[in-house]
TrEMBL record:
Stretch list, region Disordered: 1-24, 262-283, 1191-1213
Top-level taxonomic group: Eukaryota
InterPro entries: Hepadnavirus_pol/RT, SAM-dependent_MTases_sf
Originating species: Cladocopium goreaui
Record's protein name: DNA (Cytosine-5)-methyltransferase 3C (Dnmt3c)
PANTHER family: REVERSE TRANSCRIPTASE DOMAIN-CONTAINING PROTEIN, RIBONUCLEASE H
Length: 1327
C-alpha cells in the first residue's frame, strides 16, 4: 500500500510546489477504553457493529432493527449478541429508551445511533426520484422522529449519530439535518484507491474542533463538491496485492489508481433485467452494452465497463463475485457467505452496504467528538464567590466558539411526491423570516445562563470583575517578572505608555483556562511569543475548515526572499512619493513613541539607495542584511488618511498557510439577538466598543519579516514593526483569534451576549441587564490592559450605529437602515473616482468592504453585481488595470452603486411576523428542432446557434397564491428582446429570470412583503440568489430585479423545485387544466412595456441602475381580484383520487373564472339562440372564447391561411380550421364523459343541453349546413365568426390569442362548478 499523493492547483500566483508543506502531525486514533451502546436501524449486515468492535473496548448493548431475511441471517452469524427488534415502524421508542435506561441508569456509557435508511427514492440515477415523499424515502423521516424520541428518553450526554445515504438534493439533505440536529458532509471511498462510493454522512461532529486525520495524524482536508463540504480521507491506497482474487486481476487503470471501479449497484429483482437509466440511452459503448445484454442486464450498464470487471489470464472478463466485492469494500472475505443466503442476495447486500474503510474513518471522528462531552453532570459545590458560582454553572456545559456548523439554507418545502403535494405544502408553509432566530451555540449559552441566574446577574457581573481586579493587584510582581522575561520587541508592545500599564496577558490566560477555552495552548504560545506573519498559522478555535486550498500551497522562504528583493528594488528605483506621505509620517512617529516600531535603520547593502531619518534621529544598524520589506501607501477617506502596506505585492501574503476561515459576526447576528428576546419583556438595547489600536496591541513573532518603507521627498525611511500590521493576511487570522479570546471570556464569565467584527465588539441584551454588561465588559478590558476607545464608546441605546448600519430596536421590531454619514462618505469616494477616472486596488478593496453593508442591511443581493468589479480591481483581476484607471465595467459599477446609495430603503423585521406569505411559481420553456426544453433540463443541446436562438419558440408562466386566491399568467418573449441574450447560458438564464420578474411585478399589488418564490432552473436560481453572474446583460437585469425587491422591502426567499413538481410548468406552455382545477384567475400583465424596458436594460447599465426602476414601476398590471374562494382548488371536482390530493378548505362556492369574450360575441350568440331556440349562456361563451384563442397558438397556419375556395357559409369556414374541428371534438368528448360519470358528478343539465345544441350545429355536413339553414342563420354564423375574431383581438392581445388557441388542443374534462340551485354565479343564473 502506498501513500496518497496530494497535489492540487495553486492559487497564490506563484509556481506551485511539488507537494504541500509538511503539516505538524497530531494524535492518531487509539482504541478507546470505553463501553458503547450501539443503536442501529436499517442495520443491514451489521457493518456498524463490525467497525465499532475494533474501535472500542466493548459493545455493552447492541440494539438492531432490520426486516430483510438475508441480512438477518448474516447478522445472526456475525453478531449473535445483537438484540433484534424487527421493524422500527412497529416499535415503541419509549420502550427502547426504557431498555437503554435500565442497562445504564447512570448514563455514563457512550451511545451511538447508526442508520442507513433506504436510498432508492433519493438516488439521482432516477429521473423521477420522489425523495422523502416516496414509500421508502418516507422511512428516513420516520427514523428521524423515532430516534429523537428515544434520545429524549435516555439520561446519556455522550451521544453520537452516524447516518448514511446517497448524495441527494441539497435541500432534502438540509431537511434531514434539521430533523436529526446533525450536519451532512460528503465522503467518497475513491480516496482508498480502488472503488467509488460517494455518500452523505450525518453526524454531530463539531468540525471546528475536530481537525486531525484519525489515521495519519495530519490535518483534515476539505473541498466543495455538489454543494456539499467534502471530507477527504487522505490515507493509504488499497492495492491490488491486498486482495485475494483467485487468479483474476483488476483492470490496469484501476490497479494503478488512475481510474476507479464504479459504485456497486444492486442486481435486477427479476429475470427481466435492469433497464438503463434514461440519461444513458444511446450513450453506452456497444461492446459494454453487449456484455450487459449477455448477462441478462443483471446490474447497471456501467458495471460492465472494462474498469468495473475482473480480468482473467485468457483475456475474458467477469463481474466481480461477492467475495471480491467484500474485499473492495474492505470487509473480511466471505463475510456475507452464510448458509441460506444466495449469491444474488450477497450482491444485493453488498451494494446496499457501507464501504468499511470510509465508514470507519467517519466513525473514528464521531467517537472523538463524543469524548469531548463530559459523561455526567457534576455534583454542585458550596458557594464561595461570584466567580466560583459562575464556574459551577459553566462546569456541565460544553464551551463553544464559532458557528458550530456550516449554515444550511432554509427550506420551506421538503421533497414532495407530486406536483399537487408540493403545491399544498408551499401554500401552507411559513416564510423563513417567520421562524424563531437560531443563535450560534456560544450566544445561546449566554441566553440560557441569563434565564438560570435571573435578576442577580448584574450583581454577579460586578462582583466577578471586582474579584478579577483584585487578582491583578495581587499578581503585579509576578506580571512584571513575566514581562521582563519576554523578547524585547514583545515587551515593548505589551507596555502601554499612555496608561503606564503592562498588559495582563498571564491573568487573561489564567481566566481563559478557567473558562475552558478551546485552542488555548496555541493561543498561549502566540500571546507570549508573538504571532506569525509568514508561514503556517495556528487554527482558530471554533472556526470551520476552508473548503478550498487557497492558503495551503505557499511560496517557499527562498522564493519569497527573491521576489521581495526584486519588488523592493523596483519600488526604490521608481522614487514615487505618496501625496499623503506627511500624514503617514506623523502616524509612524506616534508608533515609534509607543514602542510598536523601531528605527529608523540604515539601508541594507543590496539596496540601490540610502535611507533617511526622522527628526534627526540617528540611523540604527540592521541586525541582518537579508530583510523583507513592504511599502506604505495611503487610502484617503472622507474624515482621515489611513496608512496601509502592500503585503500582497511584497509577497508576504503568499507565504501564509491557513486551513480554516475566521468567523465574523455581521448585522444578522445582532438582529437575531434582538429578535430572540421574549415577546412582551424588556426591550433590548445595543452597545458597541472599539478596541484601541486593534491589531497593534499584539506582537509579531519575528520582526525580521516586518520591515516597513515610507518614501519621502528626502528619501526612503526604513522602520521595523513589533506589532501586527494592517494589510497582512496573517493579521486577519491572528487578531481574530485574540479577539475571540476576549469575546469568549466575556461570554463565559459575565454571561454577556457579545459578538465582534474584527475590533468592533457589540452586545445586545434586554434593558434590565444591558447596562451592566456594557460597563463590566469595559472595566474588565481595562483591568486586563486591553483598552477600548472609551471616548468613542456607544453606550446602550435603542438606536445605535452598528457596523455602519443604523439599528433601531423597538418592542415589536428591528429596523435597519444605512447610516447617512457612511453613505455620504462612500458617495464622496465614488464621486472622486469617477471625476479622476482612477481607483487603486487598495482603495477598491476598502470601498467594497464599506459597501458590503448594502447587502447585509437588506439581507438580499442588492448591489452584489456592482460590487464584483470592485473586488476584481481589489484582487488584481480587473482587465485594463493601467495605474488604477477605470475600465468600462468598473465605471458602470460605480455609477450603479451611486444610484443604490440614493435609493436604499430601511428594512423592518418584526419580532412576530403575522402577515400572510405570497407564494410564487415561475417557469419557462423553449423549442429546438421540435423538442420542448425547460431551462432546468439536462437535455439542452451543447451545440448552440447564437444567430438562431431568437427564433426559437418560447413561453413563460407564473402562478401566484395569496390568502386563498390564486392567479396565473403566461406569455412569450419577442425575438427583438431575445436577441440581446443570445449566448447559451444567457438565453437560459434570461428565460427563467424574466418569468420571475413577471411574477414579482404582479405581486407588488399584494399587501405583504413576505415572498416565497420557486424556480426549477439551477443556474437561474443561483444567479438570482447571488445577484450577479458573468454575463453583463444578465447582471443588468438582476440588478433591476433586486432594486424592485428593495423598493418594496420584501423578504424574498428563493427555493429550487424540481421541474415535474412545478405547477407553473404547464402554464408556461399555455396549458391551463391545472389552473381550472384550483379555481385560479387569469391576470393580464402589460408585457410590451416590460419588454421595451428589458431590451434597453440589457445594453445600458446606466439605465438599468437608474431610470429603469421608475419606468418599470410606472407600468400598472391588471388589478388582482381577491375573491377568497379557497384558491387551492376544489379537489372533489378534479376527477382525481381524493386520497392523492391535499385536503382543501372551501370558504365559498367555487367559481371558475375565464377570460370573457366581449359584446360582439355575446350579441351574435344571443341572436343565434333567439332564432334557433338555443339556450347559450355567458359561462359557456367564456369557455368557448378561452378555448378558441389558444388554438391559434397551437396551429398558426389555420389562423393565417391564404384565401381558399368559396364555401357555403361562414360556419363551414370555422369547421375547416383546426379550431372548429377541435371544438367539435372536444364537445363530443365532454358529453360522452359526462354520461359515463356518476349522476352526482355530471354536468349541470343546462350546460349539457347548451353544449349538445352547439355540437349538433357544428356536426352538420357542409352541404346540409349551407343548404337547409335559412339565410338569416348563415348571416348570424358569419357575424359570429367575424365578431369572435374582433372580440378576441380586443380582449386578449397576443397573450390572450395564445391562451385561447392552446386550450382546444388539450383534453378538457373539468366540469364547471357545482352550486346550489338558488345561487347566482358570475354572469350565469341557475335558479
Amino acid at each position: 500500500m502506498r501513500q496518497v499523493d496530494l497535489v492540487t492547483p495553486d492559487s497564490t500566483g506563484y509556481p506551485p510546489p511539488s507537494q504541500p508543506p509538511t503539516a505538524e502531525r497530531g494524535q492518531v486514533f487509539q482504541k478507546l477504553d470505553e463501553e458503547v451502546i450501539l443503536v442501529s436501524c436499517f442495520d443491514g449486515i451489521g457493518s456498524a457493529a463490525l467497525i465499532l468492535k475494533g474501535l472500542v473496548a466493548a459493545i455493552s448493548l447492541h440494539i438492531v432493527w432490520e426486516v430483510d431475511s438475508d441480512c438477518m441471517e448474516v447478522l445472526k452469524a456475525r453478531h449473535p449478541e445483537a438484540v433484534t427488534r424487527g421493524d422500527f415502524l412497529k416499535d415503541d421508542p419509549d420502550e427502547v429508551a426504557r431498555g437503554i435506561h435500565r442497562h445504564d441508569p447512570e448514563g455514563t456509557k457512550l451511545v451511538l445511533f447508526a442508520a442507513a435508511p433506504p436510498c432508492p427514492d433519493f438516488s439521482r440515477i432516477r429521473a423521477d426520484a420522489p425523495g422523502s415523499a416516496g414509500e421508502e424515502g418516507h422511512k428516513f423521516t420516520a427514523y428521524c422522529e423515532f430516534i429523537r424520541k428515544v434520545e429524549m428518553g435516555i439520561p446519556h450526554r455522550r451521544i453520537g449519530h452516524l447516518t448514511e445515504n446517497v448524495v441527494m438534493e441539497k435541500g432534502e439533505a438540509d431537511h434531514f439535518s434539521s430533523l436529526l440536529d446533525c450536519n451532512a458532509i460528503l465522503s467518497d471511498a475513491q480516496d482508498f484507491g480502488l472503488i467509488n462510493r460517494p455518500r452523505l454522512w450525518w453526524t454531530r461532529v463539531d468540525w471546528s474542533s475536530i481537525r486531525t486525520n484519525p489515521i495519519t495524524g495530519k490535518r483534515l482536508r476539505w473541498s466543495k463538491s455538489q454543494k456539499y463540504h467534502r471530507l477527504h480521507h487522505d490515507t493509504t491506497f488499497q492495492e491490488e496485492t491486498d486482495l485475494q482474487l483467485e487468479g483474476l486481476r483488476l483492470h490496469n487503470a484501476v490497479a494503478s489508481h488512475d481510474k476507479r471501479i464504479p459504485c456497486l449497484t444492486t442486481p435486477a429483482p427479476s429475470a427481466d433485467g435492469r433497464p438503463a437509466p434514461k440519461k444513458l440511452k444511446g450513450k453506452i459503448d456497444p461492446e459494454q452494452k453487449a456484455r450487459w445484454m449477455n448477462d441478462g442486464r443483471l446490474f447497471a450498464p456501467w458495471q460492465y465497463s472494462k474498469e468495473a470487471l475482473l480480468h482473467a489470464a485468457d483475456g475474458s472478463m467477469v463481474v466481480p463475485p461477492p467475495e471480491a466485492k467484500e474485499q473492495l469494500h474492505q470487509l473480511p472475505k466471505w463475510y456475507t457467505s452464510v448458509p441460506g443466503v444466495s449469491e444474488k442476495a450477497r450482491h444485493r447486500m453488498l451494494a446496499n452496504g457501507w464501504h468499511i474503510g470510509s465508514a470507519r474513518f467517519i466513525m473514528m471522528l464521531v467517537l472523538q467528538s463524543m469524548l469531548m462531552v463530559t459523561a455526567s453532570s457534576p455534583v454542585p459545590q458550596p458557594r464561595h464567590t461570584a466567580l466560583q458560582t459562575m464556574l459551577t454553572f459553566l462546569q456541565p456545559t460544553t464551551p463553544h466558539l464559532g458557528p458550530g456548523t456550516w449554515p444550511s439554507e432554509a427550506t420551506c418545502v421538503a421533497q414532495a411526491g407530486s406536483m399537487w403535494e408540493h403545491w399544498q405544502m408551499a401554500v401552507a408553509s411559513s416564510h423563513p423570516v417567520q421562524r424563531p432566530p437560531r443563535l450560534e451555540p456560544g450566544l445561546q449559552q449566554c441566553v440560557d445562563l441569563r434565564g438560570i441566574i435571573g435578576g442577580s446577574l448584574a450583581r454577579m457581573r460586578t462582583e466577578i470583575v471586582d474579584e478579577i481586579e483584585q487578582w491583578a493587584l495581587d499578581s503585579m510582581d509576578a506580571t512584571e517578572t513575566w514581562w521582563k522575561s519576554l523578547p524585547p520587541h514583545v515587551a515593548q508592545v505589551y507596555f502601554n505608555k499612555d496608561h503606564n500599564q503592562i498588559s495582563q496577558i498571564p491573568l487573561l490566560l489564567r481566566l481563559l483556562d478557567l473558562a475552558k477555552m478551546p485552542g488555548l495552548p496555541e493561543l498561549t504560545e502566540d500571546l507570549q511569543s508573538g504571532f506569525q506573519v509568514t508561514g503556517e498559522l495556528h487554527a482558530g478555535a471554533g472556526w470551520l475548515p476552508q473548503a478550498d486550498s487557497k492558503y495551503e500551497f505557499p511560496t517557499s522562504a527562498e522564493t519569497f526572499m527573491k521576489h521581495n528583493q526584486h519588488y523592493t528594488r523596483a519600488k526604490l528605483r521608481s522614487k514615487r512619493v505618496d501625496p499623503e506621505w506627511s500624514s503617514m509620517l506623523d502616524e509612524l512617529r506616534s508608533e515609534l513613541k509607543k514602542g510598536r516600531m523601531s528605527g529608523p535603520y540604515r539601508a541594507p547593502d543590496w539596496w540601490p539607495t540610502q535611507t533617511t531619518t526622522i527628526d534627526e534621529m540617528p540611523l540604527l544598524q540592521l541586525p541582518i542584511q537579508n530583510i523583507c520589506a513592504s511599502f506604505c501607501f495611503s487610502v484617503v477617506q472622507a474624515d482621515k488618511i489611513r496608512r496601509c502596506e502592500d503585503f500582497r505585492r511584497s509577497g508576504h501574503n503568499a507565504t501564509v498557510v491557513a486551513y480554516d476561515v475566521p468567523h465574523h459576526h455581521d448585522i444578522r447576528t445582532f438582529t437575531d439577538l434582538a429578535l430572540s428576546a421574549p415577546q412582551g419583556g424588556d426591550t433590548s438595547l445595543v452597545w458597541a466598543q472599539d478596541l484601541d489600536g486593534a491589531y497593534r496591541q499584539f506582537p509579531v513573532r519575528d520582526p525580521a519579516d516586518c520591515f516597513c518603507v515610507l518614501m519621502t521627498p528626502r528619501g526612503p525611511i526604513l522602520l521595523q514593526h513589533h506589532a501586527m500590521t494592517f494589510g497582512a493576511v496573517s493579521s486577519v487570522w491572528n487578531f481574530n483569534r485574540a479577539a475571540d479570546g476576549i469575546m469568549f471570556l466575556s461570554r463565559r464569565l459575565l454571561a454577556t451576549p457579545l459578538g465582534h467584527y474584527v475590533d468592533d465588539f457589540i452586545g445586545v441584551e434586554p434593558s434590565a441587564l444591558v447596562h451592566s454588561s456594557f460597563s463590566e465588559f469595559t472595566r474588565l478590558m481595562r483591568v486586563l490592559g486591553l483598552h477600548m476607545k472609551e471616548r468613542k464608546a456607544l453606550p446602550p441605546a435603542a438606536r445605535q450605529k452598528v457596523l455602519g448600519i443604523n439599528m433601531h430596536i423597538t418592542e415589536d421590531e428591528v429596523i435597519l437602515s444605512p447610516h447617512p454619514e457612511r453613505c455620504d462618505k462612500a458617495k464622496k469616494v465614488i464621486q472622486n473616482a469617477l471625476e479622476t477616472n482612477r481607483l487603486t486596488d487598495e482603495a477598491a478593496h476598502r470601498l467594497a468592504g464599506k459597501l458590503v453593508f448594502l447587502t447585509s442591511t437588506l439581507f438580499g443581493q442588492l448591489g452584489r453585481a456592482s460590487l464584483q468589479p470592485l473586488y476584481a480591481r481589489a484582487h488584481g483581476l480587473s482587465e485594463g488595470d493601467h495605474d488604477g484607471q477605470l475600465n468600462g465595467p468598473l465605471r458602470s459599477a460605480l455609477r450603479s452603486l451611486m444610484n443604490l446609495l440614493r435609493e436604499i430603503q430601511p428594512r423592518v423585521i418584526p419580532k412576530q411576523m403575522d402577515q400572510s406569505c405570497i407564494v410564487l411559481y415561475s417557469d419557462a420553456y423553449f423549442v429546438i428542432d421540435g423538442t420542448h426544453h425547460s431551462p432546468g433540463s439536462k437535455t439542452i443541446p451543447q451545440l448552440w446557434h447564437k444567430t438562431k436562438c431568437h427564433t426559437y419558440e418560447n413561453g413563460w408562466g407564473v402562478v401566484i397564491h395569496f390568502e386563498g386566491n390564486t392567479w396565473f399568467s403566461s406569455g412569450s418573449l419577442p425575438s427583438r428582446l431575445i436577441k440581446k441574450f443570445c449566448t447559451r447560458k444567457a438565453y437560459i438564464y434570461f428565460l427563467e429570470i424574466a418569468a420571475q420578474l413577471m411574477g414579482f411585478l404582479t405581486c407588488r399589488q399584494l399587501p405583504s412583503n413576505l415572498v416565497m418564490s420557486f424556480i426549477d432552473n439551477t443556474a437561474g436560481f443561483f444567479a438570482l440568489r447571488k445577484g450577479y453572474c458573468r454575463d453583463p446583460a444578465i447582471c443588468n437585469v438582476l440588478a433591476l430585479v433586486w432594486r424592485i425587491i428593495a423598493l418594496d422591502s420584501w423578504h424574498l426567499h428563493l427555493e429550487w423545485v424540481q421541474s415535474n413538481l412545478n405547477i407553473s410548468d404547464s402554464v408556461s406552455r399555455f396549458q391551463y387544466d391545472e389552473m381550472q382545477k384550483i379555481n385560479a384567475n387569469w391576470t393580464e400583465i402589460p408585457v410590451e412595456g416590460i419588454y421595451d424596458i428589458l431590451a434597453r436594460v440589457a445594453v445600458d447599465s446606466d439605465y438599468a441602475h437608474g431610470k429603469a426602476l421608475n419606468d418599470m414601476i410606472a407600468i400598472q398590471p391588471a388589478p388582482l381580484t381577491m375573491t377568497h374562494t379557497g384558491g387551492m382548488g376544489n379537489w372533489r371536482q378534479c376527477g382525481r383520487d381524493p386520497a392523492a390530493a391535499p385536503a382543501v378548505k372551501q370558504t365559498g362556492p367555487a367559481v371558475t373564472e375565464h377570460p370573457r369574450p366581449k359584446e360582439p360575441v355575446r350579441a351574435a350568440f344571443k341572436k343565434l339562440a333567439n332564432e334557433h331556440s338555443l339556450s347559450f349562456d355567458a359561462g359557456l361563451l367564456g369557455e368557448i372564447g378561452s378555448s378558441s384563442s389558444s388554438s391559434c397558438q397551437a396551429d398558426r397556419t389555420s389562423c393565417h391561411r391564404a384565401p381558399q375556395a368559396k364555401r357555403t357559409s361562414a360556419s363551414e369556414d370555422l369547421l375547416a380550421t383546426r379550431s372548429g374541428a377541435k371544438l367539435r371534438g372536444r364537445l363530443e368528448l365532454e358529453l360522452e364523459e359526462n354520461a359515463a360519470v356518476p349522476a352526482q358528478r355530471q354536468l349541470p343539465r343546462p350546460w349539457e343541453l347548451q353544449k349538445e345544441a352547439l355540437f349538433n350545429v357544428l356536426a352538420m355536413p357542409g352541404h346540409e349546413f349551407g343548404a337547409d339553414l335559412p339565410d338569416t342563420f348563415r348571416v348570424v354564423l358569419g357575424t359570429l365568426a367575424l365578431a369572435s375574431t374582433i372580440a378576441v383581438a380586443q380582449a386578449a392581445s397576443e397573450v390572450g390569442l395564445q391562451r385561447w388557441m392552446a386550450s382546444l388542443s388539450e383534453k378538457h374534462v373539468v366540469p364547471p362548478p357545482e352550486v346550489p340551485n338558488n345561487v347566482c354565479t358570475i354572469q350565469f343564473c341557475q335558479s
